[in-house]
Structure to design on (301 residues):
């Protein structure tokens, strides 16, 4: 199922790349990007706190939307397919999401090397002075990245010194980053709960099917529509009715599907049942040629 696959894929993405930008990118907006970090042996700037909040909200909303689409897709397919076909699908996807959650759980602790959000903050004082330089120059519209500044950025050795950041700032950053994988974990965990509920529905349907087995139809799918439609029209079957007393062929087709094992979709069956539909008339002509006749119940009473 396309939406289910897309949801699982989105759930497992590494979203830290959405929060950083390569230091060598042209035209970096330093009003958005602030913190220099070393990530996977490359240098980046990380979004400011408000930027992280906005970006993670965008990511979470996107995944929530895909979550709803995936669930809807499953229920729609379940309503039109044999529940026997869902066992393997549900088991496979529950395990697939569990694997994603195992990785996401490690992401909670962004200060751990096991986290995909782990990065080393650049505490090189010379590099930190760039922000002050940038802000002072932009006030006078004089800012240009000259060779001296560019070399300072590119040649930063990111050596670990006593941190230039307040502990509170580091804590707020860690909390802001951790919130994203925590939210993704909760969404994925809720999806597993929903799949397990669907599993129970499937099991209930299978048990009901075993207790009330359907009648196997051995003829063609066109035959069942013609025969059961004619039997209802001639009074041998009390089929569901509309308020005007006419046969409700949509409800009748659904009832037949519930009680007969026949390879035909409900809408097509409805057409075979209805004497005003061309499909029914085509079958009637075939049976008339074979001199098949079902009398009205009054004729044989």
């Amino acid at each position: 199922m396309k939406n289910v696959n897309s949801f699982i894929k989105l759930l497992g993405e590494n979203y830290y790349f959405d929060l950083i930008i390569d230091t060598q990118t042209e035209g970096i907006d330093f009003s958005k990007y602030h913190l220099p970090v070393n990530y996977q042996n490359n240098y980046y700037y990380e979004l400011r706190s408000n930027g992280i909040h906005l970006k993670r909200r965008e990511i979470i909303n996107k995944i929530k939307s895909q979550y709803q689409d995936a669930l809807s897709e499953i229920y729609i397919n379940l309503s039109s397919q044999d529940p026997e076909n869902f066992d393997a699908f549900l088991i496979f996807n529950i395990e697939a999401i569990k694997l994603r959650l195992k990785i996401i759980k490690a992401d909670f602790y962004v200060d751990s090397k096991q986290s995909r959000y782990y990065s080393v903050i650049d505490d090189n004082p010379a590099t930190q002075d760039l922000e002050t330089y940038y802000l002072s120059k932009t006030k006078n519209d004089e800012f240009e990245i000259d060779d001296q500044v560019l070399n300072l950025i590119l040649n930063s050795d990111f050596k670990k010194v006593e941190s230039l950041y307040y502990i509170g700032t580091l804590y707020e950053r860690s909390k802001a980053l951790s919130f994203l994988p925590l939210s993704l974990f909760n969404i994925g965990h809720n999806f597993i709960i929903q799949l397990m509920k669907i599993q129970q529905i499937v099991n209930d349907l299978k048990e009901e099917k075993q207790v009330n087995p359907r009648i196997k139809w051995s003829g063609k799918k066109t035959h069942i529509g013609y025969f059961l439609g004619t039997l209802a029209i001639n009074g041998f079957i009390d089929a569901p009715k509309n308020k005007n007393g006419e046969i409700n062929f949509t409800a009748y087709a659904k009832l037949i599907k519930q009680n007969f094992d026949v390879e035909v979709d409900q809408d097509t069956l409805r057409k075979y049942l209805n004497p005003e539909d061309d499909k029914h008339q085509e079958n009637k002509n075939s049976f008339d040629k074979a001199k098949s006749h079902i009398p009205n119940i009054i004729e044989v009473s």
Observations:
- The CA atoms of residues 8 and 93 lie 8 Å apart.
- The two ends are 53 Å apart (CA to CA).
